[in-house]
Design goal:
By secondary structure, the protein is an all-alpha fold. Helix content is 69%, strand content 1%. Helix 1 crosses helix 3, helix 1 crosses helix 4 and helix 2 packs across helix 6.
Amino acid sequence: MTTTFIQDCTKRVNGYLSLILSYEEQKPERLYEAIRYACAGGKRVRACLVYAAGALFPDTPPAVLDRLAASAELIHAYSLIHDDLPAMDNAELRRGQPTCHVAYDEATAILVGDALQALAFEVITTPEPGINPQQLLSCVHILAKASGSLGMIAGQAFDLEAVGKKLSLVELDEMHKLKTGALISASVTLGALASPHATPPQLEALHIFGETIGLAFQIQDDILDAESSTEILGKTSQSDQFLNKPTYASLMSLAEAKIRAENLYLTALDELTPFGERANHLREIAQFIIQRES
């Protein structure tokens, strides 16, 4: 189920990314070509979450949301490049195309990932009318924490350490709260921080919503990895099983995993109750996350 809102957000952030990645006449050409290649495609879930959270507050400047949405996607793109490297998962396919290190080379892929991480913070810190320096500082803090050793990087380290091991459900949850949930939750928070009127209780509710739907996202990923085909997924199916990684689909039956994803989805929706109908776009994205087929 892809809603009009999700389609509009995807088009919007793709347009903004195309603008900031144009790099006309920039050298070295191969590097910038690889940067554009690595940023193409994708579901843009994190950008959509930024826009949907921003829509909770009527005074949120659209141009600010564009920057925040693009920053979240740049961090996500960088993480995928490094995740796919030979030293990590050694993946050959991403978003239906050869991975960056396959299409170019490993050194270029590392540089592209580094460049995208830096660019995310360049974009997020560019002054924009409608957002004050304190708000920008808060956004930088949230994105940096979610991306670093207290978030996504820690999750990836746990993922590498877990190869060949059987984790408990609690341990698997903790790993994916960091590896997947941290950036998804940060994306929701970024959208809210674009408004000066988001209150601490609202930010906490949105953080919990993001973290919870982030776990549901990962469970759905594991289900799809076990059930779907490479052609549909756009990446090699059953790759986690091949790499001997612990997943929700290996820890429990697929039927149990689907029930848990649904329960997490419902728990996440509970956090949106205080926002009423204003949170309908977040509800749409949450539904998309657990119903997607790729």
